[in-house]
Amino acid sequence: MTRSQEEGREFTLTLSGRIDASKAPKLEKALLALHERHPYMLIINLSDVTYISSSGLRVLLMAHRRQQDKGGKLFLQNPPPKIRHIMALCGFDQVFAFL
Hints:
Blueprint: E1 2-7, E2 10-19, H1 24-35, E3 41-52, H2 54-69, E4 73-77, H3 81-89, E5 97-98
Parallel strand pairs: 2-3, 3-4, 4-5
Antiparallel strand pairs: 1-2
């Protein structure tokens, strides 16, 4: 489901496949552990994500809020058109910064 890469205080997490109610808790746990390392910039690469449920969207939103609370930044990178459309329907395109 995930692959990660760290460079200084920048961390890239690459997600793949489905991010649904069964996988969201694992993603949330990984993001919480990562947040403890205090990266200034967190990039979540969504290029290989095929589906995201409301549970997955909630996990991303909570990660975004945690980054903001610590003065950091979170970016979503390369979401496929279908995923980007879902985010736009939910208003998340107004919340997240995209690369």
